[in-house]
Design brief:
This protein is mainly alpha-helical. The protein has helices at residues 2-23, 34-66, 73-98, 104-131, 139-171. It has one domain (2-171).
Length: 172
């Protein structure tokens, strides 16, 4: 029961990061400079890249190696499937946005939700591995992944929400 509570708390960490990031729109009265946006998004991308490599890709390679499979194949296939999935969703989103019924607020909701699906899946899989007793996934690793995603969601959420809010206000 204690492990389930740890997992629920760990899963809520990225949610809190996203909420904190989106709440930044209420505190920022003026636009950010282009350089500040680049710095913030670059920081978020770096944190996400590190979390992806150390908490997802390297453990995948190690698990495949331990199972006697060619170590890089599961990670490469998963990466390729993720790219294909996101490209397909991006195409659908573009069509929805170009249609006459495409509303900017709906696109905002869609894009933020879509952005958080892979992050939520990564955290969920990590905690599910921990709960299943997989020796390769420790509670600390799952929590570190959650914190990493939350840290990158804070600045990224603030920039995205601010940018979307501005475009809705200008176009709507």
């Amino acid at each position: 029961m204690e492990n389930i509570l740890y997992s629920i708390g760990g899963i809520l960490i990225p949610f809190l990061g996203t909420s904190l990031g989106s709440s930044m729109v209420f505190f920022m009265k003026k636009d950010m400079s282009s350089n500040l946006k680049k710095l913030i998004v670059g920081f978020a991308a770096g944190v996400m890249m590190a979390a992806s490599v150390w908490s997802l890709i390297l453990p995948s390679v190690e698990m495949a190696e331990n199972q006697g499979v060619i170590s890089w194949i599961p990670a490469a296939v998963g990466f390729a499937l993720g790219v294909i999935f996101l490209l397909g969703i991006n195409r659908i989103a573009r069509r929805l946005e170009e249609s006459e019924n495409g509303k900017k607020l709906n696109m905002l909701t869609f894009s933020v939700t879509l952005h958080n699906i892979p992050e939520g899946m990564a955290v969920g899989v990590c905690f599910a591995g921990f709960l299943s007793g997989n020796a390769g996934i420790a509670l600390l690793e799952a929590i570190v992944l959650s914190i990493g995603i939350a840290i990158q969601n804070i600045p990224e959420g603030g920039v995205q929400i601010r940018q979307r809010r501005k475009s809705i206000r200008l176009e709507g």
